[in-house]
User: Fold these one by one.
Assistant:
Number 1:
Amino acid sequence: MSTAITAVQPQVMPAKHYLNDNYGIRSWLLTKDHKRIAVLYLISITFFFFIGGLFAAMIRLELLTPAGDLFQSDTYNKLFTMHGINMIFFFLIPSVPAVLGNFVLPIMVGAKDLAFPKINLMSWYLYIGGALFSLATMVSGGVDTGWTFYTPLSSGFVRTHVILMAVGILIVGFSSIFTGLNFIVTVHRMRCPGMTWGRLPLFVWSNYAASLIMVLGTPVLAITLILLALERGFHIGIFDPALGGDPVLFQHMFWFYSHPAVYIMILPGMGVISEIITCFSRKRVFGYFFVAFSSIAIAVFGFVVWAHHMFVAGVSVYSAMVFSLLSFAVAIPSAVKVFNWTATMYKGEVSFETPMLYAIGFIGLFTIGGLTGLFLAALGTDVHIHDTYFVIAHFHYVMVGGMVMAYIGGLHFWWPKMTGRTYPEGWAKLAALITFIGFNLTFFPQFILGYLGMPRRYHSYPEEFQVLNVLSSAGASVLAVGFILPLIYLLWSMRYGEVAGPNPWKATGLECETSSPPPTHNFEMTPVVTTEPYAYGDEEGTVVP
Amino acid sequence: MSHSQTTTTEHHPALAHQFDSLEQQKDASMLGMWAFLLTEIMMFGGLFAAYLIYRLRYYEAFVAGSTSIAVTLGAVNTLVLIGSSLTMALAVSAAQRGAQKVLRGFIVATMLLGLVFLGIKAVEYHEKYVEHHIPGGVFGKFGPTDIEKDLQEKDHKTPEAAAQIARQTEIFFCFYFAMTGLHAFHMLIGFGLMTWLLWLSRGNRFGPDYYTPVELGGLYWHFVDIVWIFLFPLLYLISRTQGAH
Amino acid sequence: MAQNGSHGHPTHGVYYAVFGALVIGTLLTWGVAFVDLGIFNPIVALAIACTKATLVILFFMHVRYSSKLTMITVAAGFFWLMLLISLSLSDYLTRTLTLGQ
């Protein structure tokens, strides 16, 4: 009933919590506490987000003018490659699961920690290991093959440090695998009494589904990269046609992981949106079971559509038709979610705090991105728009307009829980607005550019495309402001923000019953769950002490 | 033996803080190991899928390559690994009974059989090295002249066809070394696991209420055995009816 | 929580029986490889390999005595592998196909 963010009486920080339980660098680097590991990830991926952003800035600077006058073409190739690799492997894939999931998921199921805390810490060290390889690659000249490493360009042609980067991706892939494995076992075996599958928050369902993908898909990427390294190192013709190999096989194996990877990225974000929408509509999620099962459906269907990245690569027309049909089908569960979120908001008491702004932005932008994916799934249109800026606009709409917005929204939503303090709402709303405007200004012109025929991965273009490119670059500078602002005020809030209290949003869920920040062992006593999820409108909490 | 008598699991020294009971810990650990084996199925599986596609494409070369590797050694290795799986299963059973010496004996037996396996593998690899069948930069330069000759004389191929098929055997050998190499790498990890189990068992800590690490080690070892169960026919038995080369 | 893995174990007799079956399977597949069955050679070889693997999974790895979740997990792994293989092959095997004309 009330839309106030903070409670009526001023809150007090708990005396002991996971942040002040133990001091010193060793207590952080050797921690087994999932919450501290989440914070370690938060720092690491933020760093790589801005590295990826730097590369994006350089790309957009080059594309201000039609001529390739800022960077040489080889350098430009390195820019978009490192942008893609850093953003995908070192930011997007770990973002929600490793930061928000690690922090919140065990609390949401009523557990003291994840099933395997030491493996969780090892996941972070694997991430750092892979990240070091990525930094080493960047420092030694970068890779220029595109993040897709298509052969035989990557296996025999370029002189850049492909193997170094491949090793880094291999290592960070194992980080992802172990996070997913941890989540799966936690959700199956660590739920507190009364927490049945039907009472799990949808955030848990989404992360569970994403974890299934991590465990089943990432190993195929691992073996693909190993084979690529073998070919490159020993001159064997696995993927190189000049040596008797098959370049399309590389693409099959690569995309078998990399397509489900996009669902690894988006599913946890969708979980965040479910939590935010229901809280700020003060209404249970419409169609809980539909949303839950759609997560699983996306995870399963996501594995049978990969060749839609290869329609013009030389696959047979018949298999292309099958993959095209399946790609249309995979859009359905996503649409189910969008309809359910909208229905949740309908006749709810909607308030527009910052997380809700990001969530509503997500729904609109993800829908646009998803619908444009259908153009690409249709064989006929794909021939025309494949490898153009249409593709780039499509995946940035889902990945940035969707996923990054969800991540930032989730960060704001659980920031009080993680730090015990609220952020300045005014600045946050402003940042959200700036981000939304900047994002659309950056990427909407790219749909048009792609449709008009501008190819991707080119550092020069015909003059008639300049206006749209300038618009896009201008938008990128606005977007950058929108991303930098939260970095500043979130850090500021850790010292000067208002104390939040256990449940600043008046949300439901087990994480709202424990203090902000939570104690190291999460709960004073193991909770017992007796109510359905999202019991908004109830005055009681969901926990029986 | 006081540990194994304890049934009040809250005080069991092996119970980790995040679990409420040893039973929950065991269930979680088993599920975790199976989830990890899932990733291994997919990793080897990716290799198998690539192998399958090339076998369809270069069938004759695969036959020629397959007949050039020592099927007897491969079959013996299969039996050796199956034996090591048996000893491993018996080791788990011993751990469950708390029979510490038997447990350690069977773990050592498993490792010994594993060593035999790797020894035979080393012999095979050496044979390939001597015959110039190692894929890579020098493959085209030195061989496989013996395969080329056999293709001409025994299969009556034209010199050009024989040369082409012989060149294509490089991809077969690539998969031979990649698949058996990855498998051997996993066996080495298995040795590490066995050593760790031996170390863990020194305090007589395994018994009816806690033997999870041994069971987990067993799952891993059996999985490595299963991979070889598939590798043997796929690599060694493609087509042996044309007579040995 | 559903029935979890406080499972029984096979007796040593079962272990030895399975071991015997695995040895026989190995000798069988080795021997059959030298008999010309045409297209059935790889099929027989794979069938024997699958049988052996199933025996190891069910008895050595105790899946026969484990929870449903474990069985689903194992099945899922092989199912996903089949997805990779079959859908990739669906491309390669239909490249030269001409339906209709």
Note: The longest helix of chain C spans residues 68-92.
Number 2:
Amino acid sequence: MPQKITYFAIIGGARSVSNPSGLVRRLEHDDGQEDEALRRDFSWKFTPVIIEWERGDFGEELVEVSHEQAEKIIEYFRGRWGASGGA
Amino acid sequence: MDSAESLGTSPLVAYHDGTVIIGSAKGRMVGSIDRPVRPDQPDPPDRPDRSERPKTPQDFDAKLAERLSTLTRASAYERLYARAQAQDAPFRERLAREESAQPKDSLSADKPEPDLERPRTYWTEVPRFLALWGRITEKWQGQWHSEPDPADRSHQYDVRSERQARAADLVAGIPAAEPPISESLKSAEKESNRRGWLVGFEHRLKGNNRLMEKVMDSLEAQPDATPEEAVDHIPDAIRYTFCYDHDDYAPGYWDTKSRLESSGYEMYYAKNAWSDPEYKGVNTRWITSSGQRFEVQFHTSESFHAKDEVTHKAYERIRNPETPRAEREDLRDFQRQVTSWIPVPPLAAEIPDYKKEGF
């Protein structure tokens, strides 16, 4: 069970927090951090993009969002991809 | 100076600090980790740094021309060493005072005498970094799997095949945009009055497999992005690195930035990482009038060496999905230890971050 979860919306170009291109999160466990991205099937999977963004190596911008905002973003994606991500 | 006497002058390099000895064949950079050649990149030249230094143009200032003609890794190291000695003089004097103030019998027999003639700098610590990396490797390598070829990893991604195919088409078109950009960068190097030099120029195009891997990582993290967005926004498909001497760094940054802008390029992003505990330097992103993006990094000799020769493999392990969390923490701690020894150039911290609206 992570002690803390921080969400980031991926934005870039003309996108904003209200229409991001993706959602990633950092989980802080007792033995270290784990970074995950929300996939099209709404599962979470490891991603290197937070590490890359911290180093200036990722082309898009990450903006930290609250847990409530993250829920809204997931709902936004459900509307675009369908409930199972198949749309 | 035993760890670097052979810089640029001898085909054999040996470090010996009591914990590690590294024999180095001709062509390997001093302090380099003995890592395999990156599969998607060409072999580096025998002496990449020297071969990339600017040749003296006829119209160059005579003093600068003379300096460039003798600018070798050995001379660069000598200058850095001399500067470090000067900077550390107060520290050595304090050590000497403390030692003389101690009663003689308080020193145990097996305690080594402090080496007052060898102030600790980034370069003197390189053997320790390599020894530390060796211990990390030994601790975790039992859990390391062989690195798969990125070209064979596409099945691991949750990205639809039509998006992959479109991304691959876009990636294939990138190399055609590179020659005129490289020409401008070479001109900026030649005309630099702040003595900046390009390093790793032969790696200016990211290998196709590595680029596709990065595009796929990006697409997977952004299920709502188009392949065009993902490929266009990869910042370093075409990339360059400028190095400067410590005191020339900040003026050199502004000088090179101005020259690239005069060439018609626009900087749309700058990230100053000189306060970052795991990485030092400034990464900038540029766009040509035709819309091709490229990256220019700004380093000192130390920050480039740390990134390219000491922590590169740790960074790759951190990015690897197979790496256990606890190992990732060791790797990040390793990066912090190495990076803490990189001296920050004057005024480097004043270089502002920048992000253009809409990019």
Note: Residues 1-54, 103-110 of chain B have pLDDT under 50 and may be disordered.
